[in-house]
Design brief:
heterodimer; A: 301 residues; mainly alpha; B: 318 residues; 13 helices; 72% helix; flat
Chain lengths: 301, 318
């Protein structure tokens, strides 16, 4: 049976099934597609531009003395950001040592032990609220709690206070990742462990936590990377120091605060160091981000 | 040959008491660690409340509407900062929402090969990883000089509007808004993408089945189905924009003189805290704590609202 045997053949022919670009609705579609493509381009542009400038302006200054020398006094040339690199590592380490045990513990509670009730709901809600607290408020909190009360041996500003402020920032991330990762562990593994007579302590530490290790590690690395770049909680907790780190209970230099302080100085050498510090910081953060993503790929279950 | 089981093999073994103790201790520990979240949250609220008591008692609600911030004369009003916080974040949102949702659509639809879409998605996520202080540095030395001729042109042509009535002199509200756009774009894109991906494929198939074009399906079926998640993401981004500190501090100019103009320097609560907290003493600390309290309540409100929106609307298609 051919088309021509139908009376409406002529009108069918004109409404062909072939795609016609000139139809108003197809034009409208193409227009919207171009708009969406343009928006994506605009969204990607800042990353390319920022990375490009950091790479050119900061990368060109990279040398061994940059990482091994102290920043110069205002007005002088040369110098490096060695103390800030060490300081960032120390402060981030302090933050991780506080936030990871607490966060993983809280996540274990939420995923393994909590029953539907007000307490677990409160913890979940609290985690979300804490994640939304502006980072500068974390700094104000630690300032009020630790710096202004001089709780650590009469010291006001200290690396310890800075680390604690960052740990407040990391905590919700670690709890959420742990909770979500543990929930993805198949229930059969827990039942199997229980069937063999394992206590819940043994089940969690030997079965569920190792199974969920990779997604947890991914989230934790992302959290650490975010904390390493934070400035706002550090400017009035860890403060800054032009010297090498002097223990946990003295002010300490960090790369992020160094960038902030040096960016607004009118000296060329300081501005250059700010760019160099940006380069080192961005490199560290992007590498750990890519590492975390690579780690996340291998998570089974 | 039949294996004869030993008698005690099938006897139930009692758990040794120390194992029970370890178990209960572990449970207790996890409960204690979980409750630390609540403790920290309460600690933040109490610290800020306690710190702000002097200023709150002296200025009361007057603090919110007076724009006079004078550490020398010891009188404080945070109107300029509160206005700056709200205006900068809302303006940033107005620009970032179309960009972010458009990008999310572009990388969830199969308009271009998967590999390119994944790359775009990864790049937007990496943008979120760049520290805000680095964005601030870039804004000072690259974006602002590039932007100034454009802003000057804006002032010359639209200067009769109060919004553009001042001559741009470098730092100001407009560059701060733009850097905020860069900062919240990744959040909006990521959350919109997740919500779009969660829309059941049946909806799209049904839309195509009745003969819609691709964009009709997106605009009339898929976006409405994903609207709860997107709204939640937008609210989260608003909260983030209000609390964003470093990049804004470095580019907004930190002026407490109120101006309607977007080209003039302004201030936000967060940047005021970042600038003055380290050097403040006496009554100024209390006034800053009071401002911090206001910022915290604002972000808290937005975040709770965001959670409520997501929970309220998200079950529609699940």
């Amino acid at each position: 049976m051919t088309m021509s045997s139908f009376p409406q053949a002529a009108s069918l022919q004109s409404r062909s099934l072939r795609y016609k670009a000139s139809l108003p609705r197809n034009r409208w579609n193409a227009f919207l597609t171009v708009i969406a493509a343009l928006f994506s381009l605009i969204a990607v542009l800042p990353l390319v531009l920022v990375l490009g400038y950091v790479l050119i302006k900061g990368g060109s200054l990279l040398s061994l003395s940059l990482l091994s020398e102290l920043p110069p006094a205002p007005g002088l040339e040369g110098g490096g950001i060695g103390n800030a690199v060490v300081g960032t590592v120390i402060v981030t380490l302090v933050a991780s040592l506080i936030a990871i045990p607490v966060g993983v513990g809280g996540g274990i509670y939420l995923a393994e032990f909590s029953r539907a009730g007000w307490f677990s709901q409160f913890v979940r809600f609290g985690t979300n609220v804490l994640a939304g607290v502006p980072s500068i408020i974390c700094g104000v909190f630690i300032y009020g709690l630790i710096v202004s009360t001089r709780i650590f041996f009469g010291q006001s500003y200290s690396a310890m206070a800075g680390g604690m402020a960052l740990s407040v920032l990391m905590l919700p991330t670690v709890i959420k990742t742990t909770d979500e990762a543990l929930k993805l562990v198949p229930q059969e593994l827990r039942l199997g462990a229980m069937g063999l007579g394992a206590s819940s302590f043994v089940t969690v530490t030997r079965i569920t936590l190792p199974t969920a290790f990779k997604p947890i590690a991914t989230g934790v690395v992302l959290g650490i990377a975010r904390a390493a770049g934070e400035t706002a909680p550090l400017i009035f907790t860890a403060l800054f120091s032009p010297f090498w780190p002097e223990g946990l209970f003295n002010p300490i230099a960090t790369m992020s605060v160094l960038i902030f302080n040096f960016a607004i100085m009118p000296y060329e050498a300081q501005t250059a160091l700010a760019w160099a510090a940006s380069f080192v910081l961005v490199l560290m953060i992007l590498l750990s981000n890519l590492f975390a993503r690579w780690l996340g790929r291998f998570s089974s279950y | 040959m039949v294996a004869t089981p030993r008698d005690d093999l099938f006897l139930l073994r009692r758990r040794p008491p120390q194992e029970k103790l370890v178990d209960q201790g572990f449970r207790l520990l996890s409960v204690v660690l979980a409750s630390l979240v609540g403790l920290v949250l309460a600690g933040i609220l109490l610290t800020v409340l306690w710190g702000s008591r002097d200023a709150a008692m002296r200025f009361g609600l007057q603090f919110l509407v007076v724009s006079d911030w004078d550490p020398a004369g010891d009188t404080y009003g945070a109107f300029t900062a509160i206005y700056g916080t709200i205006v900068s974040s809302v303006l940033a949102l107005l620009i970032a929402v179309p960009l972010g949702v458009g990008t999310a659509i572009f990388i969830t639809e199969n308009l271009i090969p998967l590999r390119i879409r994944q790359t775009v998605g990864l790049m937007v996520e990496l943008l979120a990883a760049i520290p805000s202080v680095v964005l601030g540095l870039w804004a000072i030395f690259v974006m602002e000089p590039f932007l100034r001729p454009i802003l000057e042109l804006l002032h010359q042509t639209l200067g009769w509007l109060p919004l553009f009535s001042t001559v741009p002199q470098g730092p100001g509200m407009a560059p701060a808004v733009l850097i905020l756009v860069v900062m919240i774009l990744p959040i909006i894109t990521a959350i919109s993408r997740d919500s779009l991906q969660q829309v059941p494929p049946e909806l799209r198939q049904a839309a195509y089945g009745v003969g819609t074009t691709r964009w009709d399906a997106i605009l009339r079926v898929i976006l409405p189905a994903a609207v709860s998640g997107i709204t939640g993401g937008v609210m989260l981004a608003l909260g983030r924009a209000m609390g964003e500190t470093m990049a804004v501090t470095m580019i907004i100019g930190n002026s407490n003189n109120f101006s309607w103009s977007l080209l003039a320097p302004g201030n936000t609560i967060a940047s005021m805290l970042a600038n003055q907290f380290g050097e403040a003493d006496g009554f100024q600390v209390s006034a800053l704590m009071y401002a911090a309290l206001i910022l915290m309540l604002l972000t808290l409100l937005v975040n709770v609202l965001a959670q409520w929106v997501v929970r309220r609307l998200s079950l529609k298609y699940a």
